[in-house]
Design brief:
Layout (H helix, E strand, L loop, with lengths): L2 E5 L5 H11 L8 H12 L4 E8 L2 E11 L9 E9 L8 H15 L4 E4 L5 H9 L15
Parallel strand pairs: 4-5
Antiparallel strand pairs: 1-2, 2-3, 3-4
Length: about 150
């Protein structure tokens, strides 16, 4: 199986929405107009790259990356990774690892001093990120705004 990771484009929007529905199956689907508006905002955001992994030409996974400028660490930025998902039928084939490698390369090329993410409270997910070279070094906190 040939795996290629690249930046997503507008033509990938339907595939991305399908992947995100696997990530958050309880979410109501976005209307096409809402999805188009959100994509326009994402694609116009400086430092934002949505990666997609193609397996034999099919979009099989994604990771959303954003470079955040930073006034500490000598002005070196931080790359945040969010919404990592690999389609169920493509899992355990190296696609997630390739996405994370591409995210780290993106961070290096942007002069970031670290790549950071939050992971679900799931032992399998934690072991995956550890196998990709990430370490659980901090406690994450979040507060949902509703």
């Amino acid at each position: 199986m040939k795996i290629r990771v690249r930046a997503a484009g507008e033509a990938d929007l339907t595939a991305l929405l399908g992947l995100y529905s696997e990530l958050n199956p309880d979410d109501a689907p976005l209307s096409q107009a809402a999805a188009d508006a959100v994509w326009a905002a994402i694609s116009g955001q400086q430092g934002r790259t949505v990666l997609v992994a193609e397996a034999d030409g099919t979009v099989a996974g994604t990771a959303d990356c954003i470079v955040m400028p930073n006034l500490t660490r000598g002005g070196r930025a931080v790359l945040f990774v969010e919404n990592v998902v690999v389609a169920g039928c493509f899992q355990r084939r190296g696609i997630g690892r390739r996405l994370m490698e591409a995210a780290v390369r993106l961070g290096k090329s942007a002069g970031c001093y670290k790549v950071q993410l939050l992971a679900a409270d799931d032992a399998y997910v934690h072991s995956f990120y550890e196998a990709c070279g990430f370490k659980a070094l901090a406690q994450g906190f979040r507060r949902y705004v509703e």
